[in-house]
TrEMBL record:
<keyword id="KW-0472">Membrane</keyword>
<dbReference type="InterPro" id="IPR011993">
    <property type="entry name" value="PH-like_dom_sf"/>
</dbReference>
<comment type="function">
    <text>Plays a role in regulating placenta growth. May act via its PH domain that competes with other PH domain-containing proteins, thereby preventing their binding to membrane lipids.</text>
</comment>
<comment type="similarity">
    <text>Belongs to the PHLDA2 family.</text>
</comment>
<dbReference type="GO" id="GO:0016020">
    <property type="term" value="C:membrane"/>
</dbReference>
<dbReference type="InterPro" id="IPR001849">
    <property type="entry name" value="PH_domain"/>
</dbReference>
<feature type="domain" description="PH">
    <location>
        <begin position="7"/>
        <end position="102"/>
    </location>
</feature>
<dbReference type="GO" id="GO:1901981">
    <property type="term" value="F:phosphatidylinositol phosphate binding"/>
</dbReference>
<feature type="region of interest" description="Disordered">
    <location>
        <begin position="114"/>
        <end position="135"/>
    </location>
</feature>
<dbReference type="Pfam" id="PF00169">
    <property type="entry name" value="PH"/>
</dbReference>
<keyword id="KW-0963">Cytoplasm</keyword>
<dbReference type="InterPro" id="IPR042832">
    <property type="entry name" value="PHLA1/2/3"/>
</dbReference>
<dbReference type="GO" id="GO:0005737">
    <property type="term" value="C:cytoplasm"/>
</dbReference>
<dbReference type="GO" id="GO:0043065">
    <property type="term" value="P:positive regulation of apoptotic process"/>
</dbReference>
<protein>
    <recommendedName>
        <fullName>Pleckstrin homology-like domain family A member 2</fullName>
    </recommendedName>
</protein>
Length: 135
């Protein structure tokens, strides 16, 4: 996926808890766009990114500040939990991801509403029946 600088909301490092038995924290390079969070295993972004689309994120949960880190969990629509942490000194990722998710959901809701309106106005028989029921 090619990204222009205008599409990037935030870029930098995050630590992701591994899914292995020992659950080590692994440093990842992340790029947040208006539609997805791209997670690269290396800082040069040479490897293929794991793309987490905002449409598959249910919420950002369990935000906790302890010492020098802020811990948070991304919950996906299939109830998978992905744990992250970032340094508390910098502008933390959890707020930026949450705002991007809200913006994405708002854009989707507006698009769905407009589609519904267009579909209703395209069928004049529907509108006449609705008007006949009106008091």
């Amino acid at each position: 996926m090619k990204m222009s600088a205008a599409e990037i909301l935030k870029e930098g490092e995050l630590e992701k808890r591994s899914d292995s038995l020992l659950q080590f924290w692994k440093r990842k390079t992340c790029v947040l766009t208006a539609d997805s969070l791209n997670i690269y295993p290396d800082t040069q972004k040479r490897s293929k990114a794991k793309e987490l689309k905002l449409q598959s994120i249910k919420k950002v949960d369990c935000v906790e500040r302890t010492g020098k880190f802020v811990y948070f969990t991304i919950v996906t629509t299939d109830d998978k939990e992905i744990d992250f942490r970032c340094s508390g000194e910098e502008n933390c990722w959890n707020a930026v991801i949450t705002m991007a998710l809200i913006d994405f959901q708002n854009r989707k809701a507006i698009q769905d509403f407009k589609t519904r309106q267009d579909n209703e106005s395209a069928s004049p028989g529907q509108q006449e029946r609705r008007m006949a029921r009106a008091p």
